[in-house]
Amino acid sequence: MLDNKFIRENADAVRRAAELKGVDFDVDGYLRLLDEVRHTQTAVDEGHRQRRVISEQFKGATPDQREGLRESAQANDKELTANRDRLAELTEQLDQLKLKVPNIPWAGAPIGDSEDDNVVIRTWGEPRAFDFEPLDHVALLERRDWAEFERARHAGGARSYALKREAVLLERAMQNLGIELLIEQGFELISVSALAQAQALVGTGFLPGHAEEIYYLERDDIYLAGTSEVGMVGMAGSEIIEHKQLPRIQAGLSHCFRREIGSAGRDVRGLIRVHEFQKVEQFVVCEADEQQSASWHERLLETSERVLQLLELPYEVVECCTGDMGLGKVRMNDVNTWFPSLQSYRETHSCSTLHDWQARRANIRYRDADGKIRFPYTLNNTAVATPRLLAAFVENHQAADGSVRVPAALQPYLNGRAAL
């Protein structure tokens, strides 16, 4: 969410952000509601003041005067109750609308409606030219007896999978490579629960707008999070962080769950689009400073690229357009990895700058160097998300005999083996 003062003083910018992001948000209606809340609050405050005046007048009043004061008190109580009820109603409406306020995209974001309008800003590596007919990851994993798909669906339903043998070791090796790279850069390793209360999802921006994409356990009134970021934002909720503790840089590990509603027919084969996966996520809370935030964005993006370079996987970095970046993003870059079986790149990493949009929703604050309480800026980006990255890895590094080459950077995590 954005600060009400900012919205009032920059109504045209917010209106333009809603247009660019394809968000249905009535800025003028929001400001009218904000005024009504303020006027009703003034009426409530005046009602309390009158109640105190009447109470003081009672002390020295005659019996006849007290009768008149009682009538005044009753009328005041009736009006005050009505204004309180109205204020509660208006405040609830305002609180719900606040969650729909779009963040302002940065000036460099391409203008567009969907991922088709995203702009490739650089590529790394060349897609491999095979001298044999390569297999897709499903056929390759089944050939090596490294995965179960049909039998896994008997247990877990559609889009379930079970990795086996060397595929399990390979997945863990990729995660460990990402973890150690982040630790070397000073990230605090933290394991967070996939269980999330509603407020943690509201704080990150997944609720209320993306409820259909999230698993909800009605009996326990709790959700399954789709990213480690939810747990890290939720844990910081309502906290005041001391200035010396910033920036807070964390590497979050968790299982992740996504319903993938609306993705039928889109890359659903095998491991590319599944309901359950594991993730190592980069998460940063920094001071409310645009230059510092921009610097962290570049650093998080470089880390993800470094992971792919160490895994020797060709990729492209795209600048996401205004219509694809989502409600709360100021800037978003996707990193898409090459899939030989698809003859195209698919997203494996997403780097996001949100400024204080999440912090305001989650009530994360910090005390700056002057002792002033402020809302910090947050950023996040994937480090390693499997099994999609695993699928890209085995497709790109397969050999004609079905074995999979292991790049040098990954060999220490697999007992020095150069191939599996």
Describe the 3D structure.
The chain is an alpha+beta fold. Helix content is 41%, strand content 21%. The chain contains twelve helices and 16 strands. A hairpin with a 5-residue loop joins strand 14 (365-367) and strand 15 (373-374). The longest helix is centred in the N-terminal third of the chain and has 36 residues, at 63-98. The mean pLDDT is 93.
Topology:
Blueprint: H1 4-9, H2 11-21, H3 27-59, H4 63-98, E1 119-124, H5 137-143, E2 147-148, H6 150-156, E3 162-163, H7 165-184, E4 188-191, E5 195-196, H8 198-204, E6 215-217, E7 222-224, H9 228-236, E8 240-242, E9 248-257, E10 276-286, H10 290-310, E11 315-319, E12 331-339, E13 344-355, H11 357-362, E14 365-367, E15 373-374, E16 377-386, H12 388-397
Parallel strand pairs: 4-9, 8-14
Antiparallel strand pairs: 1-11, 2-3, 5-7, 6-7, 9-10, 10-16, 11-12, 12-13, 13-16, 14-15
Helix pairs in contact: 3-4, 5-12, 8-9
